[in-house]
Amino acid sequence: MEIQKNGKEKIVLWIYSILILIYAVFDIVVNILPRLLAISIIPNAAFLNSFFILTGISLYLTPINIIVGYGLLRRRYWARYGVIAAMLTFVVVIFTQCLYLGIFSLFQYGIYIQFFFVFLTLFFFTRKRVKVLFDESYRFKFISWHALLVVIIILLSFYSIFFSIFMKIKYKAPLSLFAVKPRVTILKKSNLPKTPEKYLKIEILNVSLLIPKEFIVGRLYKTEGKDWGWRVVLRNKGKEIRGIVNLTNELPYGDEEEFRRRLGHISKFDLEKYMRTNNWNPAVAIIRHTEQKIGEPIDLKEIHMNGYRGFWERRQTDILFSGDFSLYKKEEDQFIGGAYLILKKYFDESDILAILSSIEILKPEGLDQASKHYEKGLRVYRSGDILLAQIEFANAYYLSPENPDYIFMFARSLYLKNQEFLDYTYIKDLLNKALKLKPGHKEARKLLKEIELKVPKARS
Questions:
Q1: pTM
Q2: Which distant-in-sequence residues (6+ apart) come within 8 Å of 376 by Cβ?
Q3: What pLDDT shows up at residue 258?
């Protein structure tokens, strides 16, 4: 059959062959060698990588791309079957993405562009005008070397799924490495006009909630390198720990930028749900396993309440309840999370439900509100309401963390002389910070001397 009239097809075939071979070199230099040598050879290759992905050329895994690219340049009949097999692996890729990313895989606009180019490639290589460019004296045989090439290409496309299955077998699922679908639980806010007698309603760091009246502020952490990050510890008075509640605005999986990039612009709630429940992505399962608390089996619930949604991870032993929780405001995507540990001897799960169902995320305050919290803290401190004073000084410190007077009064409110157990080291650190900002602060220096006498006893 004459092929002189197929000049356009020959040009397209030649360009496509060269692109496959270029991708082979690109994949070796950008992806394979850096992993072997632990160095970055081409740091800014995102554009080229996107080009190869969107055009479907990335479906050729190394060294298949070298074999097929060479075969196309030489117009070997088996190379055409290699192209068709590689394009058909697009179905496997989509299936794998659905396992890895769930419904979010449908939000990836790239797969639709990739599908368009895959369709064009299949259409091109199945046309008669292209077939005549290859030697048609050979027919496809299931028992042949070119059939083996097709089988290898198809099997290699399943490597991610095979790896996930291997991980499940290796870790003998079901273990805590793999999650089960959380049950949906509706928490209803109490309609009582007054706060129950055993609880006190507080507002601290843009959050309103109920806590047992015997609780006090233990610590307030400012996250290093993050102006917005904080963590506050609330615990019972006394030497014996009966209950601890931690609150934080740091997202549980906020640093997983790679997953955020792959999942696209999704809500913070959806990201956490993906990280907590996806079992087919080995990287997600391993991250979840490394953050897993050692102890009793987990009961994971997806909670909905009062315009909020989130997760409640429950554990219990014979002597205590423990767990983690996270809540997201549906409309604004605001977040509050935390953890708790309470002894069954003093509290029960109804206390946990009371605390969780009372949580309300408040509108962030302006920095100018720091002085108002400080003045209110001084008033209630003089009146003897120590817990409320701690709350107000904590809010002032949070809004203005470089004010030495706010830091000093927060430290002073934490120092309860009739308290059997205090975090003297933390109070000392606060006072040192206040003195660093204001070396002439006499009251801070006086209190620091008193605290330093107690620090060694606290450590022993």
A1: 0.70
A2: 392
A3: 63
Which of 143-147, 298-302, 317-321, 373-377 shows the lowest mean pLDDT across its residues? 143-147
Task: Measure Cα distances from 428 to 67, 77, 134, 424, 448 in Å.
Answer: 68, 79, 81, 6, 6
For residue 401, is pLDDT > 80? yes
Q: How confident is the model at residue 224 (pLDDT cuts 50, 70, 90)?
A: low
Structural tokens at position 143:
């028992």
Distance CA 217, CA 247 (A): 11
- Domain spans of the chain, in order of start: 7-170, 191-252+291-364, 382-460
3-state DSSP call for residue 64? helix
CA 409 to chain centre: 36
- C-alpha distances in Å from residue 213, one per residue of 270, 323, 387, 414, 421: 35, 21, 9, 16, 18
Over residues 319-339, mean pLDDT: 87
Query: Peptide bond before 193: cis, by omega within 30 degrees of 0?
Result: no
DSSP state of 295: S
Distance of alpha carbon 267 from alpha carbon 279, whole angstroms: 20
What's the Cα-to-Cα distance from 151 to each of 84, 131, 137, 300, rounded to whole Å? 12, 21, 22, 42
Whole-number Å distance between alpha carbons of 155 and 86: 11
Do 201 and 209 meet the contact criterion of CB atoms below 8 Å apart?
yes
Q: What is the mean pLDDT of residues 292-300?
A: 63
CA distance linking residue 150 with residue 144, whole number of Å: 10
∠ CA 452-457-459, rounded to 5°: 95
Instruction: Give domain 382-460's CATH architecture.
Output: Alpha Horseshoe (1.25)
| Residue with token string 């394979």 | 32
- Kindly report, residue by residue over 16-46, the tens digit of the pLDDT: 999 999 999 999 988 888 877 766 666 677 7
- Asked whether residue 5 carries a pLDDT value surpassing 70, the answer given is no
> What pLDDT is recorded for position 174?
46
**Highest mean pLDDT pick, 22-26, 95-99, 353-357:** 22-26
CATH 3.40.1000 fits 191-252+291-364, yes or no: yes
Kindly give the interhelix angle for 386-399 and 404-414, rounded to the nearest 10 degrees: 150
Q: Cα-atom radius of gyration of the chain, to the nearest Å?
A: 31
Query: Distance (Å, rounded) from C-alpha 273 to C-alpha 267?
Result: 10
DSSP state letter for 171: T
Q: With CA atoms as reference, report the closest residue to 217 among 240, 235, 243.
A: 235
